[in-house]
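During the second half of the funding period, the structural biology subgroup turned its attention to how the target accommodates small molecules. The most pressing case was zinc ion, which had performed well in the primary screen but for which no bound structure existed. We therefore specified the complex as follows and requested a full 3D prediction, including the ligand pose.
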Amino acid sequence: MTIRSYGIIHRKEDGACPMADATRPIIDPEFLALLACPACHGELELRDDRLACVRCRRRYRIEDGIPILLIDEAELPPEVRS
Ligand SMILES: [Zn+2]
């Protein structure tokens, strides 16, 4: 099993990606609309400086305008039990 979202993140490493522009603190709403939660494929919405899944409530941090959509990196809300 592989995590499809990995491709988004690794492009940051080459330094030439326009998405990594430091003058852009927050995610483009049109870009956000293309994203989905890697855990449940739910819709994501911006909450403070995180992307929050509206279904499973996981929260993903954003680094340099790039959401870190990794299940292992997600913050789970305290009220959720598995
Ligand atoms: Zn989710």
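Two results from this model are relevant to the next phase. The first helix runs from residue 6 to 10. The beta strands are 44-47, 50-53, 59-63, 66-67.
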